[in-house]
Amino acid sequence: MEKQQAIFCWSGGKDSAYCLHKVITENRLDVRYLVTTMNDDFKGISMHGVSEELLDLQAESIGIPLIKVRVTEGSNKEYEKQMEIAFLKAKSEGITMVIFGDLFLEDLRIYRENQLAVLGMIAIFPLWKIDTLSIVNDFISQGFKTIICCCNNKYLSEEWAGKAIDKTFMDELPAHVDPCGENGEYHSFCYDGPVFNKKIEFTIGEKVCKELTKSNITGHYWFCDLTAKE
Q1: In Å, how far are 138, 218, 220, 221 from 213, measured between CA atoms?
Q2: What is the pLDDT of residues 215-229, one digit of tens each?
Q3: Could you tell me which residues come within 8 angstroms of residue 94 by beta carbon, excluding any fewer than 6 positions away?
Q4: Which domain holds residue 76?
């Protein structure tokens, strides 16, 4: 039986990497494209702050073509317009499934489903309601490698930016922080693991605290500067 074609919303973090690996391993969907939202002001992945160069290296190592959705204003209206263009491009090629790595935020799932329903497309959530602690533990045990590239200072202070997500990380993580950071406590950059054909080589630079006030994201965030090795 021919597999249904899909596109995968790729953030570059651990949940995306784990979810994509699950989809590929289960072999029920044919992932034709990765789709990533870029902030065109700083040429990086929206919210995560990871550079476009590192994103390109991820896609190259995974071996799936990448569609970049570029936004500048940071408003929901602009985001929805640009995502609609990307989704309709995929639909024109016969692709009707869109895969997300969301875990348990009900309002976010409803939002995604409603936006796609208007376009005649279907949202797929392979990790939905799987226990987040079990996801992280399995992620680590399968050999994935990732670090925190951004964290919300409300939950995690400066020293957490740049930390590797491993057993020590899990042992030290405060109880009020979701193991996967699903509530926005932190974001990550995945650079190695079974979904990649080649490890992404990079260096860790300075940490910068930024106040974000755009869209529905507010607060102070620590960003860790990551640079691809030449």
Answers
A1: 34, 4, 9, 11
A2: 555 678 899 999 998
A3: 5
A4: 4-124
